[in-house]
Amino acid sequence: MKLKLASKPLMALFVAATVMIAGCQTVQPPSATGTTTPPAQGENKPADQGEKATEPATTEPAANQPATSGDAKETPRNETLYINGIQWGPPSNFNLLSGNPAFPINYGNSRELVYETLFMINQLDGKLEPLLGTKYEWTDDMTLHIELNKDAKWSDGKPFTSDDVVYTYQLGKKYDINWSNYWAYIADVTADGPNAVKITLNKDNPNRLTVLDSIELIPMMPKHIWEEIEKKSNNDLATIRKEVNANPVATGPYKIYFYNDQKITIVRDDNYWGKSLFGKLPAPKYITHVIYKDNAAGDLAFKSGQVDVSQQFIPQVWNMWKNGAPIKTYLKDAPYYVPGSMPSIFFNFSKKGLDNPDVRRAIAMSIDYKKISDLAMSGYSAAMQPSLTLNTDAESKYVDQAAIKSLQWTTDVKAANELLDSIGAKKGKDGIRVLNGTRLGPFEVECPYGWSDWNAALEIVAQSAKAIGIEIRTKFPEAPVWTNDLQTGKFDIIMNTPAGGVNPSQPWSRAHDIMYSKEVAPLGEMAFWNWGRYKNDKADQIIDKIPSVTDQAELKTLYTDLTKIWLTDIPSIPLMYRPWVFHTVNESVWKGFPVDGDGSNIPPQIAMDGAGIRALYQIHN
């Protein structure tokens, strides 16, 4: 299979499922064949405020759903960690190659429970922590050398070796699956003895950042199991995808125990190899994900202590602990959750009026970001500080904050009106401005119907623009229509999330999504980044250069220059900081969940993925 080389960020491909949890669905870059990777149908629906999640079947299992497995009896409450908000709808399979695996196999939000990755990302500081891999280093400009943990074993007792790593990567070259696009940047993956591998970059399209993404994103698969499945399926991906894989052989601390259309339970593997890495086994013997019919049912169960960790959007979460309930968020006070993405509006640069950077700046200055946070996000978004980076330790270090301060805007309606006056945009009798013969409106701003926090945010954008003489009307089509409008450029202003999540390629991947103009399809054809068709040659040059730079001072200079360009040209406007995970815990049964300032450096991703798995070794009854 020959893959087309393209410079597109890959993190977004791999974490589409996580996006479903953290907020509204976003359109992601394409798979290796150039088509968009869709979210799994019926799984990981947006647990979003006001949106009803997919209801599970009430009697018969869904089509292609495996029969129930394991012991249907209730597990002891003091040995079971209950979670919600990850799985929506009944499980159909536990097959990583299916495109629709159920919890805890789904790609972007529970990777370390059953199938593990080589390294674990820490959402707090952006660092990669050892897991199946012990260390990695660039031995030259084109070669990443990874050493593997010699203690690691598969759940059937066979050793985990470099052959398994090579096999897993090669699956993405052989088939069109979630991690296929990494091969746009990789020339080869080879074993260097039984406990080390080398990843060689593609000399025509090298990108260190996306390759580092791969070592914390791709779940390792056992060669001795899956090559037999391949053989049985005659190497036909459609047939391989039908494999239910009800009892996965994997390296993680848990195994599938029981599942039906109401819940999925996993049980601790007391022979887990990682006892030597973590010093002990995870505290919960069982982890159960109950499949609730909607957010309201999940919230009620969480508040009453039937659920320990909630990954659902809970409006006005502070009401949960008003009467002394032992409920906590990761941050004690607003915004309560750690930011992980910046849902933004994008401008179509072909539209008269919107092609003027001063008009775009005036719109940015008019927006009431506090109202968006308070009304649309229940206060879960911190004060807006416009930048290409999140205001977190993991990202803010890349930009000289003092150098960009003079270019950052704040909500200032008076100054926005003065700016429009200064460029000769005069108000007509109807209060709407006209600039160089072009009436500034009506412009439509759109996002999908039913994504209530985004819908509310765009209503505020429209109201804010009216105060400066620009007419913006909201448009909320069904999601497929929005997707088509976004990709083909059939919009005036549109909302989407550029490359969310914390990973080694941030903030480069976000900047790429917003600003990179190379290989972007023209208006009318499908584009998977830079939806407004913004073009700046200097920005392209910086985005091309960043992945090959290792000197931290030079990186800071490059990111600062790139951010200045963005703040000057304003191809997009972030409307909110959105949590990547909604880490809300009830300590009625389990205590000791990580919180900000506890000194543990455990990110708020318990029962999720990455370094958040370490919380399972800290909690107790």
From TrEMBL:
Name this protein carries in UniProt: Peptide/nickel transport system substrate-binding protein
Domain Solute-binding protein family: 127-503
Keyword Transmembrane helix recorded: no
Record keywords: Signal
PROSITE patterns associated with the record: PROKAR_LIPOPROTEIN
CDD domains: PBP2_TmCBP_oligosaccharides_like
Cross-referenced InterPro entries: Peptide/Ni-bd (IPR030678), SBP_5 (IPR039424), SBP_5_dom (IPR000914)
Highest taxon listed in the record's lineage: Bacteria
Region: Disordered, residue numbers: 30-76
Signal peptide segment: 1-21
Cited SUPFAM superfamilies: Periplasmic binding protein-like II (SSF53850)
Pfam families: SBP_bac_5 (PF00496)
Organism: Paenibacillus favisporus
Biased composition (Low complexity): 30-42, 55-68
Record field: compositional bias (Basic and acidic residues): 45-54
